[in-house]
Fold:
Amino acid sequence: MSGFLNYYLLPAAQAVGVDHIRNHDTRHTAARLWLAAGFQPFQVSRWLGHSSLELVGRVYGHLYVSDYSAEVERFEAFTRTAET
Structure:
């Protein structure tokens, strides 16, 4: 991984004014973007290679628990369909 870091990631980061970046930062950013895009936490945990969903919830949970509007709408649509 150090080849990727030294030859690609660090020069690209420096070109846009980022002085310090680690591989961990890219994993964290990817997880945040996946969760913000609506990917399921279980799937994100698998992509990151985590052994449990609990770790994703503990580290990134604050990124996906604040907006339930889509889930509420989906549930309301389901209950409306079930009533007819």
